[in-house]
Specification:
alpha/beta; 31% helix; four-stranded antiparallel β-sheet; GAG_Ulvan_Degrading_Sulfatases; signal; Sulfatase_N; 17 helices; ten-stranded mixed β-sheet
Length: 553
């Protein structure tokens, strides 16, 4: 009898603890620069619901990613590690090992008692065989996502979404969110669910991942008759300004970076829209439309939480995986260390915080790797030693202890597309960037050979072989082993936030430069860590050996 009472008491205590822990919803957009929200200063875009999150929570005005490209940035968020430690990128020939995945925030929080869901895009190859391993799908209680790009019309690319009523990405994701949250909502046949309904006595963690306003999504918008008016007419009756500092390709007199360092002639075709003002405006309009579609999803989400009486105990986190150049200083794309691509919005809305702390704008130096430890802390769980980020939850309620004095960003995606390896260290006033020799083979030459021989261009450009693994490993280790930079930059971010004036050769700043170089050494050593990377081989060769379908995304 005493044992039964004890067990019952234990169950009651566990349920009370579960109810005390907050629900957490993490929203991640794709290629969204800091200035694409009303609350971050954009005078054109309509994002009232996201702006309201900022007014009811905290907006970090100095948040940065770790790597300005999709896959490594997203894995850095999942594992709270710099790319130099987790060692997975498009050119790395690796996937996240099952052992490393056990220390990801979704896996840890699920083991810690959270009911977990993943909706939208996955661009992180996990397990033996990467996207085909099935490990991601098995790691959540609710899975409604596609690997790689979704496009604006996800049904065209992923059969998991075929049962959705909607056909556009924000609206399909909205259906998935409703299905996850509301046990009375229409069940989606494609979704993978390990329980018939979401347990109401357990806290939940929902990760919502967009493939917008990324060019792979917005470029596929077709103004279909059944599309919502947002995606057909919104912003098209307005005079849309070009980005500040825009320089069309034909007007570039002095390139931002030396031509042998950043080879713009090899840039991916998806970023050619920055070459003319007309194409840039069209792309920008589509980005604005996509952001308003995402904002409407956020509004519907908040409304659903309130209807289910979940709004008072559900934290919402909103950010992007990186930004995007759209012709500023004649640049297009990402994979650099400039503010335009590393600086992102980060909003955390915790309804439990006192009113006097709502609407805060914090200039603390925070990074995307801080999100995972912050969520674990909010869920009353311990933070593993593998994490490199910091718990920033104390800043939500008036705390003043900032997580770091310097931010470190890096680009290890040096490929035939002309982008160089580079690293940056910065504080609130100064940024130091260093670049290494760019001796990668030319994409334009590969394309020419593919056309001549009748080879599929994508296979020529995106296939990663075993030999590429050694090259990537050298990219990681060489700077730590004494490789010298071939070009350097120094910017005063307070006086020159657009990073227009390189002060590297100004003798009056030599002491600042010395300090930043010392900080760079500490940061890159920390980013690398001491352990060997916990990865699986994931190349064309490994996929062919296992007789699996080759996946190039």
């Amino acid at each position: 009898m005493k044992l039964k009472v004890f067990v019952l008491l234990l169950l009651i205590i566990n349920e009370v603890i579960a109810q005390e822990r907050p629900n957490i919803i993490f929203i991640l957009t794709d290629d969204q620069s800091y200035g694409l929200l009303g609350c971050t200063g954009n005078k054109t875009v309509k994002t009232p619901h996201i702006d309201k999150l900022a007014d009811q929570g905290i907006l970090f005005t100095n948040a940065h990613i770790t790597s300005a490209i999709c896959t490594p940035s997203r894995i850095s968020i999942l594992l709270s590690q710099f790319e130099r430690k987790h060692s997975v990128n498009f050119n790395s020939g690796t996937s996240v090992s099952a052992e490393a995945w056990e220390q990801s925030y979704p896996d840890l929080m699920r083991k810690g008692g959270y009911y977990t869901g993943w909706i939208g895009k996955n661009h992180a190859p996990v397990g033996e065989g990467g996207y085909q391993s099935g490990l991601m799908e098995k790691s959540f209680d609710y899975w409604y996502a596609g690997h790689g790009h979704l496009g604006f019309y996800p049904k065209d690319r992923h059969k998991i979404f075929n049962d959705a009523i909607a056909h556009t990405q924000p609206e399909i994701i909205t259906e998935g969110v409703r299905s996850f949250l509301d046990n009375n909502e229409r069940r989606l046949e494609g979704a993978i669910e390990f329980l018939e309904k979401r347990p109401e006595n357990k806290p939940f963690l929902l990760s919502i991942n967009f493939n917008l306003p990324h060019g792979a999504g917005t470029s596929s918008m077709q103004l279909k008759p059944e599309d919502d008016a947002i995606y057909k007419t919104l912003y098209r009756d307005m005079e849309i300004p070009l980005p500040d500092g825009y320089i069309a390709k034909a007007a570039i007199k002095t390139p931002k970076l030396p031509e042998d360092l950043l080879r713009t002639e090899d840039r991916q075709k998806g970023y050619n829209y920055v070459d003319t003002p007309e194409a840039t405006k069209e792309r920008y309009i589509r980005q604005l439309q996509a952001m308003t579609g995402i904002d409407r999803m956020v509004g519907n989400l908040v409304k659903k939480l309130k209807a289910l009486n979940l709004n008072k105990n559900t934290i919402i986190i909103f950010t992007s995986d990186h930004g995007l150049f759209m012709g500023e200083q004649g640049l297009g794309g990402k994979a650099l260390c400039y503010e335009k691509v590393t600086h992102v919005p980060l909003i955390i809305m915790d309804p439990r915080v006192k009113k006097k702390y709502k609407g805060i704008r914090s200039s603390a130096l925070v990074q995307s790797i801080d999100i995972a430890p912050t969520m674990l802390s909010m869920g009353k769980m311990s933070i593993p030693s593998t994490f490199q980020g910091k718990d920033i939850s104390g800043l939500l309620s008036g705390g003043t202890q900032e997580p770091r004095n310097y931010v470190f960003t890096e680009n290890l995606w040096s490929t035939q597309f002309g982008n160089p390896r580079c690293e940056a260290v910065q504080n609130k006033e100064w940024k130091y960037i260093r670049y290494y020799e760019n001796n990668t083979f030319s994409a334009s030459k590969k394309i020419a050979a593919a056309k001549q021989l009748g080879i599929n261009e994508n296979k020529m450009l995106y296939a990663v072989h075993d030999t590429d693994v050694a090259i990537y490993r050298d990219y990681i280790e060489s700077p730590l082993n004494g490789e010298k930079p071939v070009y350097e930059e120094l910017y005063n971010l307070r006086d020159d936030p657009a990073e227009l004036n390189n002060l590297i050769y100004k003798p009056e700043h030599k002491n600042v430069l010395k300090t930043l170089k010392s900080a760079w050494i500490n940061k890159i050593e920390f980013a690398r860590g001491e352990e060997a990377p916990k990865v699986n081989r994931y190349t064309i060769d490994s996929q062919l050996e296992s007789n699996k379908k080759v996946h190039l995304e």
